[in-house]
Specification:
Layout (H helix, E strand, L loop, with lengths): L1 E8 L15 E7 L2 E6 L4 H8 L5 H4 L2 E4 L4 E4 L1 E6 L12 H10 L2 E6 L10 H12 L4 E4 L15 H7 L4 E2 L8 H14 L3 E3 L7 E2 L7 H6 L3 E2 L2 H17 L3 E3 L5 H16 L5 E5 L1 H5 L2 H7 L12 H13 L4 E2 L8 H4 L16 H10 L6 H16 L14 E11 L16 E11 L2 E5 L4 E4 L3
Length: 456
Amino acid sequence: MYLIKNARIVDPMKNLQEDNGAPAKRDLLIADGKIARIAPSITEEEAGAYGSGLSKEEDRELWIVEAEGLKIGPGLVDVHVHFRDPGFTYKEDIQTGAAAAAAGGFTSVVLMANTKPVVDNEETLSYVLEQGRKTGIHVYSCASITKGLQGKELVDMKSLSELGAAGFTDDGIPILEEDIVREAMQKAAALQRPLSFHEEDPAYITNNGINHGKASAHFGIGGSDREAEISLIRRDAQLALETGAIYDCQHISTREGVELIRQAKQQAAAAGKSNIHAEATPHHFSLTEDAAIEHKALAKMNPPLRTEDDRRAIIEGLADGTIDLIATDHAPHSSEEKQKPITEAPSGIIGLETAFSLGITHLVREGHLSLQTLFERMALAPAAMYGLPAGRIEEGHPADLVLFDETKEVVYETFASKSENSPFKGALLYGSIEMTICDGRAVYQKPTVRIRKDQQ
């Protein structure tokens, strides 16, 4: 058991405040994997009395966390990560990916299907889910939409859903055939499973990962034109409105794309629906194509970093709820791969460990989002889209929690991930994850956390 003393609660479901407007200070008792009690004060004696009714002796052990000066929020939920397992475990595996997630405050993650073999069959999906259960966090997985990510033939969505697929995605590769997309949406709508789409039409791309504009001119390459994203969002948002499918537009990067999602959400709301969703990555709300010029392949990703106008449009979309999800697109690669020439190096950066700090630094401290809204975008809304029991702080709910200090300076020099491909390495940021608790157990904590064992 844990008794967390004097933490200030940031709950995206309830605005608990003191008279001065500060988040309310509460004690939390965590027992048997759940939040047993929340109160202004819980004594160690009360906690011990509660624990005496637990069946296992180890569960009755009481640890007191002195959280004065810290805040507590729901464990973060990332619906877009790559753990590279099976097939590319030199970049990351499910265990190291989970460790990186815990270090970043994430207690639930949803894996993408572009592994080797692809998660388009029951055997591979079972392997991924079984490995996920060996970690300290909740690891869910999507299956692919099409067999082999070829965009031609749908997987058996029903059987994979019954086996535990959280949703479906061909992330990394756009689906170009409209009839396939429509059929996938119809089947996913019947199953009530989300479909996540990588919206980049290759007809508008030469040398992906770099924006067609200032950055592509710098490198002397073609780059990715913004219309690559715009054209497919326009198509797929309309198909989602027609079919009622739960549509997730991944890693949005253009102001036009944001506006298309805004309009689609308004149309859905007018019809009494809420099936249109969009993700923003921390790198797309923090950086522009100038970072690609500075950091080269370490800031190369699909879709690419674009202009300051695009970055500001993404922040505006996060602020007004057009973009309801923050997802990292955690994409580990080896140092050797990222040291290749810009046209040969793979796209993608790691993101789990720096995401919360980037949200604090570029969204909260700059006044775009409140702490409560940040947790809505990083915990409550992602959990709701996938129907996960996460994203809230309530008695009786799973004890998936994060203790943090949003004022603390942090510099990321090392990572729990196997990879270090990040343009944020060495940057001064704000917002420190101090402790992560998943299912009532500490899965990450910094040495500075004051914790002691009850000796009664």
